[in-house]
Amino acid sequence: MSTPPGVTVVVMVSNENEHLGPCLDSARSVGPMWVVHTGADVATAETARRAGARVMSLPFADSALLKNSALDRLPISKGTWVFLLDADERIPRALAVEIRGTVSSTPEGLVAFNVGRINRVGERAVKGGGWWPDRNLRLVRKGRVRFEDRGVHAEAEAEGQVGSLRQPLLHFSRRDIGDHLHHQARYAVLEARDLRDRWGGHPRPLPLRALGRRWRPWLRLAWILCPSRPAAVTLWLFLARRGYRDGALGWILAVLEGAKQAWTEELLAHGAGESR
Questions:
Q1: Where in the chain is the domain with CATH 3.90.550.10?
Q2: Measured distance CA(3)–CA(119) in Å, rounded
Q3: Is pLDDT at 44 greater than 80 in this prediction?
Q4: What CA–CA distance (Å, rounded) separates 24 from 96?
Q5: Which residues neighbour 36 within 8 Å (Cβ) at sequence distance 6 or greater?
Q6: Tens digit of pLDDT for each residue in 244-259?
Q7: CA 173 to mean position of chain CA atoms
Q8: Tens digit of pLDDT for each residue in 21-32?
Q9: Going by C-beta distance under 8 Å and a sequence separation of 6 or more, which residues neighbour residue 242?
Q10: Do 158 and 112 form a contact (C-beta atoms < 8 A)?
């Protein structure tokens, strides 16, 4: 009798010892665990080993290169299922059950699955403003998915059909608004660099998939010509993306996203954010 397919959990970390223990505790029931460590913190590697995970050390790189390197070097055969996880994420019990059930009954043509994330700022789950469902390719067959650098985050390209899991991850995204501000400042620099390299310094268009193909070219042109893109971003997230569902927090997050847009444009205008 053949052995049913399993899942290997791969956690990407860089000096995140405070998050790693609970993360691995949540992933243990899914399958064997690997921790890909890019930092110099010895305690992080020790925490991983105590939790029963194997550790792979890789040099620090952008998110896409790191994911590709980890998948290439994992000592598992091509086609084996891998679940990619970050240290500040948790796999709820219902998602773990769905993952195991999915890989045991998925046809060969399906090579990856998107997974939603419940993003938390402090003690609150953020429901609107583009923070939900925040789907990303996480359950993938080794050798059938590659990641490409997109400035702030890596984007995945799958060689085959892609499905979606129903149960979400839990993401402890930000400790508080101050932590979010720190991330936004760093993301502005990365966004400016990405816009300069990939878009010739032009503003990245808003995500307009829901508005239909007919209107997208005109709306993108309007976005480029918009006299106040930071204000447009704020209103887009709070109204069109329903940030109002989160009340005052939703408004603050939308305003800070607009502020990031303003800071990104300021960096571009003064030649900052250039690739080195």
A1: 7-174
A2: 36
A3: yes
A4: 12
A5: 10, 11, 12, 13, 56, 57, 58, 66, 70
A6: 999 999 999 999 999 9
A7: 10
A8: 999 999 999 999
A9: 127, 128, 129
A10: yes
How far, in Å, are 78, 105, 126, 246, 262 from residue 251 at the CA level? 45, 43, 11, 8, 17
Is a pLDDT exceeding 60 seen at residue 118? yes
- The alpha carbons of the chain give a radius of gyration, in whole angstroms, of 20
Q: In one letter, which amino acid is 151?
A: G
Architecture of domain 7-174 in CATH? Alpha-Beta Complex (3.90)
**For residue 243, pLDDT beyond 70:** yes
Q: Are 169 and 118 in contact (CB under 8 A)?
A: yes
The Cα–Cα gap between 55 and 35 comes to 5
- CA distances to 74, 120, 126, 172, 180 from 12, rounded to whole Å, are 13, 19, 24, 15, 20
Query: At 248, which amino acid appears?
Result: A
pLDDT exceeds cutoff 80 at 171: yes
Q: What is the dihedral of CA 28, 72, 110, 164, to 10 degrees?
A: 50
The pTM (predicted TM-score) of the whole model is 0.85
Per-residue tokens: 149: 């650098």
SS3 state of residue 158 = strand
Comparing CA positions, the residue from 76, 95, 236 lying closest to residue 244 is: 236
Look at residue 157 in the predicted model and tell me its pLDDT: 87
Q: If we measure between CA atoms, which residue out of 234, 225, 138, 223 comes closest to residue 184?
A: 234
Can you tell me the distance from the alpha carbon of 134 to that of 253, in angstroms, rounded to the nearest whole number?
A: 15
Entry field: residues in the chain: 276
